[in-house]
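User: I'm writing a tutorial on reading structure tokens. Could you give me a worked example: one chain, its sequence, then its tokens, then a sentence or two explaining what the tokens reveal?
Assistant: Sure. Here is the example chain.
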Amino acid sequence: MKESRQQLIEQLRRQKRLGIRALLLGVVLMLIGIPFFVQSWRFNASAIRAAGKIVQLEQLHGGKDASYIPVFSFVDQAGGSHVIHSRLGSSHPRYAVGDVVGVLYPANDPEQARLNSFFALWLWPIVFGGAGLLLAVVGILLWHGAVTAPVDELAAAAQSES
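And here are its predicted structure tokens:
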């Protein structure tokens, strides 16, 4: 019984360490996500909106692994024409050549324009923040389960099963 109890205690210690590591990694990922969130928030709040047009779908790679990057054009408030390669591509293009799209751009730098889409603005905050939150919750649950486990009852149950 004592050996079984010791094994159980060691398993719970490993679970507790794993929980703490997952929690810490989750917090780090959320902290990495904060600047992305702030940048997206500020960009969205201050950007000038314009209508644009998809002029090309640039294909990266070939075959089954093909990715398509939308290339769009727009005219800024000063009348300048711009052609921009999107920062975000996909294996299944959302756009077709000729589609009219919303564009966001900083007034002082139209070359930093982005397509006005949810993922173009919020992908990285969601990836880092979401993954961080998920890992933090899993870490808390693992840690809590390890520190509140009824060791004597579990050891007795394991002993009676063998």
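What the tokens reveal: Helices lie at 2-46, 118-147, 151-161. The CA atoms of residues 27 and 132 lie 6 Å apart.
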